[in-house]
Protein backbone atom coordinates (compact mmCIF):
# COMPACT_ATOMS: atom_id res chain seq x y z
CA UNK A 1 0.00 0.00 0.00
CA UNK A 2 1.39 3.40 -0.89
CA UNK A 3 0.03 5.05 2.28
CA UNK A 4 -2.35 4.41 5.17
CA UNK A 5 -5.14 6.82 4.28
CA UNK A 6 -8.71 5.62 4.62
CA UNK A 7 -9.13 5.78 0.85
CA UNK A 8 -6.06 3.67 0.13
CA UNK A 9 -6.85 1.17 2.89
CA UNK A 10 -10.46 0.74 1.71
CA UNK A 11 -9.39 0.33 -1.92
CA UNK A 12 -6.72 -2.21 -0.98
CA UNK A 13 -9.15 -4.12 1.24
CA UNK A 14 -11.83 -4.18 -1.49
CA UNK A 15 -9.49 -5.20 -4.30
CA UNK A 16 -7.44 -7.67 -2.30
CA UNK A 17 -9.89 -9.36 0.02
CA UNK A 18 -13.57 -8.54 -0.53
CA UNK A 19 -13.51 -8.91 -4.33
CA UNK A 20 -11.89 -12.36 -4.02
CA UNK A 21 -13.44 -13.87 -0.88
CA UNK A 22 -16.46 -11.72 -0.06
CA UNK A 23 -16.96 -9.65 3.04
CA UNK A 24 -15.61 -11.10 6.31
CA UNK A 25 -17.84 -11.62 9.33
CA UNK A 26 -15.66 -9.40 11.53
CA UNK A 27 -13.09 -6.73 10.75
CA UNK A 28 -10.57 -5.81 13.46
CA UNK A 29 -8.33 -2.78 13.04
CA UNK A 30 -5.55 -1.35 15.18
CA UNK A 31 -5.47 2.10 13.57
CA UNK A 32 -9.06 3.29 13.78
CA UNK A 33 -9.87 6.22 11.54
CA UNK A 34 -6.45 7.83 11.15
CA UNK A 35 -7.28 10.28 8.39
CA UNK A 36 -10.11 12.33 7.02
CA UNK A 37 -12.37 10.41 4.69
CA UNK A 38 -11.88 11.29 1.05
CA UNK A 39 -13.49 8.30 -0.59
CA UNK A 40 -12.61 7.36 -4.14
CA UNK A 41 -14.38 4.37 -5.57
CA UNK A 42 -12.57 2.06 -7.92
CA UNK A 43 -15.38 0.12 -9.59
CA UNK A 44 -13.43 -2.97 -10.69
CA UNK A 45 -13.34 -4.83 -7.34
CA UNK A 46 -17.08 -4.30 -6.86
CA UNK A 47 -17.79 -5.43 -10.41
CA UNK A 48 -15.70 -8.57 -9.88
CA UNK A 49 -17.44 -9.27 -6.58
CA UNK A 50 -20.82 -8.83 -8.28
CA UNK A 51 -19.79 -11.21 -11.05
CA UNK A 52 -18.60 -13.84 -8.56
CA UNK A 53 -21.80 -13.54 -6.50
CA UNK A 54 -24.31 -13.58 -9.41
CA UNK A 55 -26.06 -16.86 -10.10
CA UNK A 56 -25.56 -18.14 -13.64
CA UNK A 57 -28.88 -19.18 -15.20
CA UNK A 58 -27.54 -22.26 -16.97
CA UNK A 59 -25.58 -23.57 -13.96
CA UNK A 60 -27.95 -22.47 -11.14
CA UNK A 61 -24.85 -21.60 -9.11
CA UNK A 62 -22.59 -18.62 -8.66
CA UNK A 63 -18.92 -18.84 -9.68
CA UNK A 64 -18.09 -18.55 -5.96
CA UNK A 65 -20.29 -21.61 -5.26
CA UNK A 66 -18.35 -23.60 -7.82
CA UNK A 67 -14.93 -22.48 -6.54
CA UNK A 68 -15.41 -22.18 -2.77
CA UNK A 69 -18.49 -24.44 -2.34
CA UNK A 70 -20.30 -21.68 -0.45
CA UNK A 71 -21.76 -18.23 -1.08
CA UNK A 72 -19.65 -15.13 -0.80
CA UNK A 73 -20.48 -12.78 2.02
CA UNK A 74 -21.44 -9.49 0.40
CA UNK A 75 -20.47 -6.11 1.90
CA UNK A 76 -24.03 -5.39 3.07
CA UNK A 77 -24.08 -8.64 5.04
CA UNK A 78 -21.26 -7.82 7.44
CA UNK A 79 -22.42 -4.39 8.58
CA UNK A 80 -24.39 -4.25 11.78
CA UNK A 81 -28.05 -3.32 11.23
CA UNK A 82 -28.98 0.18 12.25
CA UNK A 83 -28.22 3.71 11.19
CA UNK A 84 -24.65 4.47 10.09
CA UNK A 85 -22.62 6.84 12.23
CA UNK A 86 -19.77 9.33 11.85
CA UNK A 87 -17.48 8.87 8.87
CA UNK A 88 -19.82 6.30 7.32
CA UNK A 89 -22.42 9.05 6.84
CA UNK A 90 -19.92 11.05 4.77
CA UNK A 91 -19.03 8.00 2.67
CA UNK A 92 -22.63 6.89 2.06
CA UNK A 93 -23.61 9.55 -0.55
CA UNK A 94 -20.39 8.94 -2.50
CA UNK A 95 -20.95 5.19 -2.50
CA UNK A 96 -24.59 5.59 -3.52
CA UNK A 97 -23.57 7.87 -6.39
CA UNK A 98 -20.88 5.44 -7.55
CA UNK A 99 -23.33 2.53 -7.48
CA UNK A 100 -25.98 4.61 -9.31
CA UNK A 101 -23.46 5.38 -12.07
CA UNK A 102 -22.71 1.70 -12.74
CA UNK A 103 -24.52 0.51 -15.85
CA UNK A 104 -24.65 -3.04 -17.17
CA UNK A 105 -22.83 -3.64 -20.40
CA UNK A 106 -25.26 -4.65 -23.15
CA UNK A 107 -24.54 -8.02 -24.74
CA UNK A 108 -22.59 -7.97 -27.97
CA UNK A 109 -24.40 -9.03 -31.11
CA UNK A 110 -23.03 -12.17 -32.70
CA UNK A 111 -20.38 -11.42 -35.29
CA UNK A 112 -21.65 -11.42 -38.84
CA UNK A 113 -19.11 -13.44 -40.76
CA UNK A 114 -19.68 -14.31 -44.38
CA UNK A 115 -20.19 -18.03 -44.74
CA UNK A 116 -18.05 -19.99 -47.15
CA UNK A 117 -19.78 -22.79 -49.00
CA UNK A 118 -17.46 -24.61 -51.44
CA UNK A 119 -18.95 -25.01 -54.93
CA UNK A 120 -18.05 -28.70 -55.21
CA UNK A 121 -19.97 -29.43 -51.99
CA UNK A 122 -23.28 -28.71 -53.78
CA UNK A 123 -22.98 -32.04 -55.68
CA UNK A 124 -21.76 -34.17 -52.74
CA UNK A 125 -23.73 -37.33 -51.94
CA UNK A 126 -22.10 -37.76 -48.51
CA UNK A 127 -20.10 -35.53 -46.16
CA UNK A 128 -17.87 -35.73 -43.08
CA UNK A 129 -18.58 -33.47 -40.07
CA UNK A 130 -15.90 -31.77 -38.01
CA UNK A 131 -16.57 -32.52 -34.32
CA UNK A 132 -15.01 -29.31 -33.00
CA UNK A 133 -13.82 -31.12 -29.89
CA UNK A 134 -10.19 -31.27 -28.88
CA UNK A 135 -8.91 -34.60 -30.05
CA UNK A 136 -5.90 -36.66 -29.17
CA UNK A 137 -2.97 -37.21 -31.52
CA UNK A 138 -4.44 -40.33 -33.18
CA UNK A 139 -8.12 -39.36 -33.10
CA UNK A 140 -9.72 -38.03 -36.28
CA UNK A 141 -11.28 -34.54 -36.10
CA UNK A 142 -14.12 -35.64 -38.40
CA UNK A 143 -16.99 -38.15 -38.11
CA UNK A 144 -19.00 -39.68 -40.90
CA UNK A 145 -19.59 -40.08 -43.76
CA UNK A 146 -23.23 -38.96 -43.58
CA UNK A 147 -25.71 -39.15 -46.46
CA UNK A 148 -26.90 -35.75 -47.79
CA UNK A 149 -30.72 -35.68 -47.88
CA UNK A 150 -31.24 -32.06 -48.92
CA UNK A 151 -28.88 -29.26 -49.93
CA UNK A 152 -30.37 -25.84 -49.09
CA UNK A 153 -29.03 -22.35 -49.77
CA UNK A 154 -27.69 -21.93 -46.23
CA UNK A 155 -28.00 -25.38 -44.68
CA UNK A 156 -27.62 -29.07 -45.40
CA UNK A 157 -29.92 -31.84 -44.13
CA UNK A 158 -28.08 -35.05 -43.30
CA UNK A 159 -29.12 -38.57 -42.38
CA UNK A 160 -27.39 -39.22 -39.06
Which terms summarize this structure?
alpha+beta; 2 domains
Protein model, in words:
There is one protein chain. The protein is of the alpha+beta class and 160 residues long. The protein folds into two domains: 6-101, no CATH class; 119-159, no CATH class. It is 32% helix and 12% strand. The protein has helices at residues 6-21, 43-53, 63-68, 75-78, 87-101, and strands spanning 126-130, 142-151, 156-159. Helix 1 packs parallel to helix 2 (43-53). Mean pLDDT is 75; it is low at 33-41.
Major sheet strand order: 1-2-3
Largest sheet, strands/sense/barrel = 3 strands, antiparallel
Helix content: 25-40%
By helix and strand content, what is the structural category? alpha+beta
Cα end-to-end separation? 62 Å
Shape: elongated
What is the C-alpha radius of gyration, as a whole number of Å?
A: 27 Å
Strand tally is 3
Which helices and strands occur, and which strands form pairs?
Elements: H1 6-21, H2 43-53, H3 63-68, H4 75-78, H5 87-101, E1 126-130, E2 142-151, E3 156-159
Antiparallel strand pairs: 1-2, 2-3
Helix pairs in contact: 1-2
Amino acid sequence: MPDSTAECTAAHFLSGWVSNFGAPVTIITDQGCSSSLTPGVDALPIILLTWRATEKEDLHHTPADLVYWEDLRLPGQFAAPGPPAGHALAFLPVLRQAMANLRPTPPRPPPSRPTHFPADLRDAAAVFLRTGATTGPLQPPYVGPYLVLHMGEKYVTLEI
